[in-house]
Specification:
Number of strands: 10
Shape: globular
Structural class: alpha+beta
Order of helices and strands: HHHHHHEEEEEEEEHEEHHHH
CATH superfamily of the largest domain: Butyryl-CoA Dehydrogenase, subunit A, domain 3
Distance between the termini: 37 Å
Number of helices: 11
Number of domains: 3
Strand content: 15-25%
Largest sheet: 4 strands, mixed
């Protein structure tokens, strides 16, 4: 079924993304996977291709286009690629909106030019060793000292934690104000007391650097307060729907890519004198997956239109996030089984997909949290 959500200009960006992946990523994929981090030069190259900051102001070098369909195109192409590449979804869909919507004119002038060229890499630090989905459990604190903030605490599972230059840190600035006691502070590379811990050894997505961050009496200038003091929790909630939709888009695109590879495999691989895809069980399984993926794509496209129209709700994004990531996990598992022993070999993309996809039902809010949000909306 032809997807009607994208126009010609979106397809032009899709072609640019593919060219970038083939020329700037494919030659280094094996190296990045082995070193468990993508070279910073790859972000600079992405900036030259116009793949970073197309949704940020033109006066700082961005594209000035507020159309999440462009974000979706990049997410889809990078996910279908299935090999190590820079985390542009993090830069465009998660960190970028904080700077676009919350940074004041002085902050934008200071940070956005380098961010858009890929010379400055961003990250968001929410999760702590003892606080994941429960943001109210955050213990990182920031205390006023004149015009500055003194920041103390530890964060973990931070995407781009090693490469990042600008880290949006969620800190408790008023211990007695509950959800109204959080603020966002931008910590910059080189600030005294800001150190990086382990580059975490993950089950999958080895190339995507994920790290522990530590803050010990870090003096953060008052000019680095992002958004309003005490509105940190609200700012986070405002940005989460687009982040969760981005994850849903990646889940469907990745599962579709794995499915397509598997379709070719089951047509070529023979057993008992016939292609294994012709056996009724396998044929039905492929039919089920194809149908479910197409239905998921339809809902994702509906959510895309909603976000373009400024109407996407947290509940709709939660539905897309949990359903698509659980579907993606299920599809990839079936595809490994259909590959038999070859599906367990790392030389086959399906084996890498199997470990890479597993995190999608966890980050950005677990499946259980998504269902909790939907359930509350039902009055339960």
């Amino acid at each position: 079924m032809k997807r009607l959500i994208f126009d010609e200009e979106h397809e032009q960006l899709r072609a640019t993304a593919r060219q970038f992946l083939e020329k700037e990523c494919a030659p280094y994929a094996e190296k990045w996977d082995a070193e468990r981090i993508v070279d910073r030069d790859a972000y600079v190259a992405a900036g030259k291709y116009g793949l970073i900051g197309f949704n940020l102001p033109e006066k700082f070098g961005g594209g000035g286009v507020d159309d999440f369909r462009f974000n979706a195109v990049i997410v889809e192409e990078f996910t279908r690629y299935g090999l190590p590449s820079p985390g542009l979804s993090l830069q465009n869909d998660i960190v970028g909106p904080y700077f676009a919507n919350l940074a004041n004119s002085e902050q934008q002038a200071r940070w956005l030019p380098g961010y858009i060229t890929g010379e400055l890499i961003g990250a968001v630090a929410m999760t702590e060793p003892g606080a994941g989905s429960d943001l109210a459990g955050i213990k990182t604190t920031a205390v006023r000292d004149g015009d500055d903030w003194i920041l103390n605490g530890a964060k973990t599972f931070i995407s781009a934690g090693i490469n990042s230059d600008l880290v949006v840190v969620v800190a408790r600035t008023d211990p007695d104000a509950g959800h109204k006691g959080f603020s966002l502070l931008v910590v910059e590379r080189g600030m005294e007391g800001f150190t990086r811990g382990r580059k975490l050894d993950k089950m999958g997505q080895h190339f995507a650097d994920t790290a522990e961050l530590n803050f010990e009496n870090v003096r953060v200038p008052g000019a680095n307060l992002l958004g309003e003091e005490g509105k940190g929790f609200y700012h986070l909630m405002t940005n989460l729907p687009s982040e969760r939709l981005s994850i849903a888009i990646a889940a469907v695109a990745g599962a579709r890519s794995t499915f397509d590879d598997t379709l070719t495999y089951v047509k070529d691989r023979k057993a008992f004198g016939q292609p294994i895809g012709s056996f009724q069980h396998n044929k039905f399984l492929m039919a089920e997956m194809d149908t479910e993926l197409e239905i998921a794509e339809a809902y994702v496209d509906r959510c895309l239109q909603a976000i373009v129209d400024g109407e996407l709700t947290a509940v709709e994004a939660s539905k897309a996030k949990w359903w698509c990531t659980e579907l993606g996990k299920r599809v990839v598992d079936h595809c490994v089984q259909l590959h038999g022993g070859y599906g367990y070999m790392n030389e086959y993309k399906v084996a890498r997909d199997y470990v890479d996809v597993r995190i999608q039902t966890i980050y950005g809010g677990t499946t259980e949290i998504m269902k909790e949000i939907i359930g509350k909306n039902l009055g339960l």
